[in-house]
Here is the input.
Amino acid sequence: MTRTAGRTEREIQDLALADGRHLRVEGTCNLRDVGGYPAHAGGSVAWRTLFRSDSLHRLDSQGVAGLAGLDLRTIVDLRADIEVGQRPGAVAGLPARIVRAPVVRDPAVLPPLADLGAEYRYMIDECGDPIGAAVRALCAPGALPALVHCAAGQDRTGIVIALVLAVLGVPDELIGADYSLSSVYLDPDSAAVISGLKAVGPGGNVTAGLLSAPAGLILNVLDRARAAGGGSVDGYLTAHGVGAPGLAALRSALVR
Here is the structure.
């Protein structure tokens, strides 16, 4: 486990806020490239290969054209069936394969939204198989470039991306910084836009306070996954259906 690699706070922020990180595509708030972070064996995560985003249901033709420019081969949708039914994605015109991997099939079982820590613990403890299915979709031959999204692009997406970055050998401090970027892009104005989109069922009220994303939340997720996986995130994902060859293929495809 890597909590620090001797980087200053400024160096961490410079990596997290690197040019090209936040992608401005009409109809999204929180679309980001996770490339550029230092990773396994002295490499770095490839740019324009793995993306994370909020819901894609608000895309207009201009937004779809913007996504088309990413040459996506896979879009992994982590939302529950009720969310997809109410707000279907507007990506039918793209050639990307759509993979449904609802992390929480019934949002009503989640702890109160005000306690994100409890929500995250629930997902790591009880939703490992769908989390594994999402990561397995990224490991498939020809799956990349890929985009992972949920509703706000913060919680379910944050967990899946954090686990992937850990597999790639990205230091925890940078995984935390990447997660915290949701606080930057899901600003108070965004709260009104995405209200009701998070995994709380229809009509949920998302306030600006619930869009804060302190790094400690995702660091606790990594600790919990490692504890459940015999000391490693690889072990956690392997226990939930992601084979070691798939994880090796993911590292090979994403680390340059």
User: Anything to note?
Assistant: The longest helix spans residues 215-228. The CA atoms of residues 183 and 212 lie 5 Å apart.
